[in-house]
Specification:
Elements lengths: L1 H15 L9 E4 L6 E8 L6 E16 L4 E13 L5 E11 L5 E3 L2 E2 L2 H4 L14 E3 L3 E7 L2 E6 L2 E2 L6 E2 L3 E6 L2 H31 L6 H10 L2 H28 L3
Antiparallel strand pairs: 1-3, 2-3, 3-4, 4-5, 5-6, 6-7, 8-9, 9-10, 10-13, 11-12
Keywords: Signal
Length: 254
């Protein structure tokens, strides 16, 4: 009889959510951080006028396993309106793993020590002659309605350096040029936001140097500063996606 009473009581507590049983070696788990939304204008690089908007909703959830490994699930929904994007919405989920010995993985890919220690360079570098960022994705009208488009396939986290083989395409103006310019505008706007947000996070954390490791660690730790860190991460990934799309246009041009 006593055993039956204890079993019933345990079932009641579980159903009410007063206690929980461990699962999958998880010893601690944060509630999903309240989803927050932020937006930014996309500016035409030639005219300086706003041509669109990026609206991002992002949340994160951190679980700590019994061996000390932290698993961060970062969910993001990005809607781009205007900027020749036709209100495109994309949802993505990134999984970040941080091991007790200081190894970092994003979606299964291990980050090198060089990648983790890469600092934010708190300055805006020069732009290409016409539009875009010359070291990432850029376009230039070299004659009336005749363009040269250039893009790298990838970049570092802070968008300071292009990675891979740069492609170049000379072409008359067409819908592909319009799409390419839209992606270049997005990359440029995201990098400008990275500079601003980086300065904000530096002040929030009270540190002199902001690295990729600091951003990811702040996301996993939670708290007020994690909001800014998540925005930084989101700006970087959105720009990388735009770069990949721009590069794809050049790959398919030949």
């Amino acid at each position: 009889m006593k055993k039956r009473i204890l079993t019933t009581a345990l079932a009641t507590l579980l159903s009410l959510g007063v206690i929980s049983l461990p699962n999958n070696n998880v010893i601690a788990a944060s509630a999903a951080t309240n989803n927050h939304t932020f937006s930014q204008k996309i500016y035409d690089i030639d005219t300086g006028f706003p041509v669109g908007e990026i609206k991002t909703s992002v949340s994160s959830n951190t679980k700590e396993l019994s061996d000390g490994t932290k698993i961060v699930t970062l969910s993001k929904t990005v809607t781009i309106s205007g900027n020749n994007q036709n209100n495109k919405t994309k949802k993505s989920v990134d999984t970040i793993k941080i091991t007790p010995n200081g190894e970092y993985f994003i979606n299964g890919k291990k980050l090198s020590k060089e990648e983790l220690s890469k600092p934010l360079i708190n300055k805006v570098s020069s732009k290409a002659q016409s539009g875009g960022l010359s070291w990432l994705t850029s376009y230039n009208e070299i004659n009336k309605d005749y363009y040269v488009l250039r893009s790298y396939p990838d970049a570092d986290f802070w968008l300071d350096k292009g990675i891979g083989k740069q492609l170049t395409w000379y072409t008359k103006g067409n819908y592909k040029v319009s799409d390419f310019k839209a992606y270049a505008n997005t990359v440029s706007s995201c990098r400008s936001s990275l500079i601003t947000l980086g300065s904000t996070l530096l002040a929030e954390l009270g540190v002199a140097v902001l690295t990729v490791e600091t951003v990811i660690g702040t996301i996993s730790a939670g708290g007020a500063a994690a909001i800014t860190a998540r925005e930084i991460y989101s700006q970087s990934t959105t720009a990388h996606e735009a770069m990949a799309n721009a590069y794809s246009i050049l790959e398919n041009a030949y």
